[in-house]
Structure formats: C-alpha cells, structure tokens
Amino acid sequence: MAYFDDEAARRMEAMYATQGVVHRRREVVNALQVKAGERVVDIGTGAGFVAYDIADAIGATGEVVGVDLSEPMMRLGRLRCANKPWVRFETGEATHLPFPDDAFDAAISVQVYEYVREVETALAEMFRVLRPGGRAAIVSTDWKSIIWHSSNTSRMQKILAAYAEHCAYTDLPRTLGVKLKSAGFGVSHEAVITQYHRNNDPSVFSHYLIERIRGFAPGRQGVSEQEAADWADDLHNIGKQGSYFFCLNQFLFVVVKPSYGR
User: pLDDT tens digits, the chain, 262 residues: what are they?
Assistant: First the structure.
C-alpha cells in the first residue's frame, strides 16, 4: 500500500470525493451487501470514505476496521468517522494483516493490490482473515486502458509510460480473477466501472490525476519537468476548448471464501 504525506493525502481525499469515485464507491458497497452487525475489514482504507459508507450499512452493532500504512491518510479517516465509534483504524500491510484467522464477515479493498508486488501473499492474507463463507469486494485499475485525448500523441504515450512506474502491476485486472481462484476464493461477480469524462474540472477524477502524473513523471522514461508541464497545460487547454476526453476502466471482483475452508 502506498504511503502519502499530509499534502498528498489531502490531494487524494479531493480525488476520492469526485463524482465518478463516489459512484464507484456506491457500486462496491452495494456489491458487498453488508448486513447489520457484521465485522468488515477495509484493506488500504486511505481517507476512510469506504469505511464510512460501510459503517452506515452495518450500524453500531457491527465493526469496521480500516488498515493502511499511511498515518496522514488514516488521520483523515479518523476525522471522517469520528461520529461512528464502531469504526477504527490500524496500521498494517496488505501482505501481513494484524488480525487472527476467520476474524471478519467481509473484506473490501479498492485500488490496492496493483501496488503490492507480493499480490498473491496479500490475497492469501485476505482469505485468511475472512471467516468461512465470508466475502470480499476488490477493485483494481487497468492503467493500460487509459484513453486520453491530447494534441501530442507521442508525448502522451511517453508520459503514460513514465506513470506506469507508479505501481507494481499496470494491468492486474487481466490476471486477478485467476489469482483470486488460486488463493481459494470463488468469484461470484465481475463488473467494469468506467471513469469517463468529457470535462476537466474539480468534479472529475482525471482532473486530479493530471497533477499527480505531472509530479510523478519527470525523471522517468526520459520525461523532463518541461515536458510534464506542457503535457498538463495541453490537457487543461483542451478542457477549456470543450474537446476533453478521458476514459479509464476499473474492475470489480466479488468473491466468496468457501464455507468448508480451503
């Protein structure tokens, strides 16, 4: 799981509040079908948006535990969930969850496993902490699926090649179903959640992604500071001209741990 300082955490929080991400969160929580009184672990909880929504669904008789490596992100989560004492946050890694076997009724992990090089170990950990018959909802982004209109196609390709270095697996969804089955899960549902934008303003995910990539790309794949700045300016200008186009596919997997164990 990625670490974020205070400034980066605030930027990520703004991204998580955009329309498309709110829609994705509703889709994921609805797919998990949590019930009152259940115990749920949110792996890679970040700023606690998912934990907050799940807490509403399970009520005060249940418990939500958010796990993350970034204390700045979890501080935002604690503030967000301050009026829900049945939500708590713990420092931990996806590959070594600080919980006993069979501890949770459900698990959720959104845009985490593509950042974990030992992804098979992380999936085994999710399997371990779920009770027999427990289920999980997982979202992973296929970063190779980006379609982004630009006035300079070669520069766009160069920038995206540099940004590919930000995670361990840029196309994890293409193999995640097989990995989940190898971990012992049964896959009960799969769906595509698309981030599709025809405008570039603070209400959309890609608006914040531009600045994140602009800061990350320089020094990678031969990208200079000026190239990254020109790339970002180009996208903002295209947005002002009314010809902005962005599309990215994210994939939802809903899985079940067999009631008889592995």
Answer: 454 556 666 777 777 778 888 889 899 999 999 999 999 999 999 889 999 999 999 999 999 999 999 898 899 999 999 999 999 999 999 999 999 999 999 999 999 999 999 999 999 999 999 999 999 999 999 999 999 999 999 999 999 999 999 999 999 999 999 999 999 999 999 999 999 999 999 999 999 999 999 999 999 999 999 999 999 999 999 999 999 999 999 999 999 999 974 4
Q: Are 122 and 94 in contact (CB under 8 A)?
A: yes
> How far apart are the C-alpha atoms of 23 and 40, rounded to whole Å?
20
Tell me the one-letter amino acid at 256. Answer: V
**Predicted TM-score (pTM) of this structure:** 0.91
What residue spans of the chain are helical by DSSP H? 6-16, 19-32, 49-58, 71-80, 119-129, 153-163, 173-182, 205-216, 225-241
Domains and CATH numbers, the chain: 6-142+168-195+248-256 (3.40.50.150)
Which residue do the tokens 């985490």 mark? Answer: 112
- CA dist 132 and 199 (Å) reads 45
201 within 8 A of 255, measured Cβ to Cβ: no
State the maximum Cα–Cα separation within the chain, in Å, rounded to a whole number: 58
Question: CA 253, CA 262: separation in Å to the nearest integer?
Answer: 19
